[in-house]
Each structure stands twice: as C-alpha cells, then as structure tokens.
Amino acid sequence: RLTVFGLMTLFVVYYLQDGIVGFVRGVFAKKGIAARKPLPVTTVADNVWAGSAGNVEIGTNLLSAKQLLMQFGGLKALNQVDLNIVKGSVHGLIGPNGSGKSTMMNVLTGIYKPTAGVVEFNGRVISGTTPSAIALGGVARTFQNVQLFGEMTATENVLVGLHHTFRSNVLDVMLNTRRYREEEQAARVRAASILQFVGLSDLAGEEARNLPYGKQRLLEIGRALGLNPELLLLDEPAAGLTAPDIVELIAIIHKIRDHGITIILIEHHMDVVMTISDTVTVLDFGQKIAEGKPAAVQADPAVIEAYLGGNVSDEEVAHAPTTSTPLTSSEAGA
After folding, report:
1. In Å, what is the CA distance from 285 to each residue of 80, 94, 264, 322?
2. pLDDT for the residue numbered 178
C-alpha cells in the first residue's frame, strides 16, 4: 500500500501540479476550446461600484435588537440589551474590555445564536439564521484581527467577497465557458472599482501578506463591500493603526456612509468614535448603560465610572473617557 500511494503521490506532484481541474482546462486549452483569460482591469469609472439601496428609508430603523440575552453557562455576556440602528448613520458601540461588544457583533452576524431575544434586519428576523445567509442578506463585517487570504492578491481577496455575483457552475469553470468568462470579467471590473474606492488601486496585484498593516485593514473593508451590504459592522478597525492611517480610515468611513451604507463601529479609540458617530451606545458587563449623542454619552457619569471605576474626581470627569489625543478637525477630514 505504501508503494502504491507513494507512486500516486509522485504522479500527482509531477503531472497534476495544477490539480485535476487545472489539468482538464489545460487539455481543452491545447485543443483551442478554452478562450483567453480575462484582461487585467487597470481603470474603472467611479460609478461602477455602489452600495445597496435597500427597502428602508433613511432615518428609520434598519436593524433592531430586542431584549438580547447571550448566556455562556452562568455568564451573561449580553443581558436584556436593546439596540436600534438608524439607516444612513454611523452607530458607535463602545465599552470597557469584556463589556459584550464583540459578543453583540457575533450575535448580529449569526455567529452566535442568542439565548433569548430577537434581531430584525430590514423588517425580517435574522437571529438564528446562518452567518452566510445574513451576509448575503445585506450585513457584512470586518474582524478585530485581520482575516485576509495572505497568499492571494488584493484583487483576489475582493473577488472572494464577490462570489455571490457568480452563477457559473463547476462545469463552466472547467470548460472556461463564455458565461464564466463574462462573469469573471465583470467581477474584476467591480473589484477594481472597490479597490479604487478604498485607495488600493496601486496595490491591486500585491499579495495581501505584503501590504502594510493599515492597507490590510482597508483591504478587509473592501472585501466586505464586495457583498454590496446595507449594513457594515467594523470591529475595531483602528486597532494598531498609526495616526496617518487613522485619518485615512476616517475618510473611508465617511465615504462609505455617503454611499448610503449604515455602519456599526466598535472601537477603543474614543477620538475616532466621537468624531464620526451619530449615536453612541455604551455596554458594561453585558448591559446597556448609556446611549445618545457622542457629547452627551462622553459626559455621562455612568460611562465615566465604567471606564475609570469607583468614585471619580471632577478633573477625571473632565478628561474621560477619551483615551488618546483627539484628532483636529482637519486631520479627521470633517
């Protein structure tokens, strides 16, 4: 058996280096059946990519979470939390470490099924459905830790987010049919448009692992935009970024909102949250302790106590909960 499997392995290594599909495509290519590969896309019109319009009017609730309870054994990571996200807004979600922010993100995107409560998006219940169904339904997200395909180029990473635009089957791919070629070319045009939108056109052919960390963050946002979402959840997008990268990130978030996409922003950089958020919700130990305009939330005694703990002085109140030097209006691109 070892001899037979060894010979099979050597055969694959030497003669099927591109896999079975690659071998079949090569055979057809030699016979002239396969057409040329899609041409690389270098320039696109600004209006090729656009966000999903959706059915909900601007200013009304796009997503509503009602009495969410997420329990792990005896721990209540979320305890009867209500959350209303208005379409067209940037909604900040903040709180100390362990307050339940990431748990809320996972519940909204279907990674966790809530112990109790319901999540409605666009007027339909999405809690309890699969993450893929929620993503295809118009809810995209990025991750706290960058989750890119390192050995794939920036364009290929965005094409992963555009998989839902393909109707071709495996046979179309193997035979390189006209339908598959047209769909791939259209996807590449759209991917180029998204990369242009997030400022990565010059790095389209670069492998993701070779990109600077700040550019990787933008690429992950671009891949999420490939799903054509109505709601985009950003999980600490400014984590680990330098000041110039943060300024660029804020500009991109403004552009995304201008395209009609609603944003939920989880972030520890208070200057970023307070600069771009229309509404801020604060969680602490799995409960909502404050919600409202950024300035009002920043001055809320419950929020200050959650960040600083115990009794605080007037001087501490004056500076809380800002944790880093605020950006100037010019730096923030306001």
Report:
1. 12, 12, 20, 20
2. 87
